[in-house]
Amino acid sequence: MRSSVCPTGPRPNKRISECRIVAFQAAENFTCGDDPGRHVAAIQRYVDAGFDEVYISQIGPRYKDFFTAYGERILPRLRADDSETAS
User: Fold this and answer.
1) pLDDT exceeding 70 applies to what percent of the chain?
2) Burial of 31 (0-12, 13-18, 19+ CB in 10 A)
3) Which of 2, 31, 58, 67 could, after both became Cys, cross-link 42 (CB 3.0–4.6 A)?
């Protein structure tokens, strides 16, 4: 995989296209979008692997909306799954 730092050099158009490839590759490796099920499944993989802490981040300007939605739509589903397995 290429570095997340855009390459430098004398050909700016080539640099821009390489940066886009890196961004596209990053999107393939992170859970993105507004489907709560995808986020729950992604976090659940870490829980199933034994992690007891998972850090979530928002990339973009609407971080308050993101974390509000996470608190309302994703975390309750994970907590429900956790309470079912604890029973």
Assistant:
1) 63
2) middle
3) 31
Q: What is the pTM of this model?
A: 0.64
Q: What is the DSSP string of 23-37?
A: HHHHHHHS--SS-HH
Q: For residues 69 and 48, give the distance between their C-alpha atoms in angstroms, rounded to a whole number.
A: 23
> Nearest Cα to 36, choosing from 28, 44, 25?
44
Q: Which amino acid is at 61?
A: P
What is the Cα–Cα distance from 24 to 16, expressed in whole angstroms? 12
pLDDT in tens, 2-40: 444 555 555 555 555 556 666 667 677 788 888 999 999
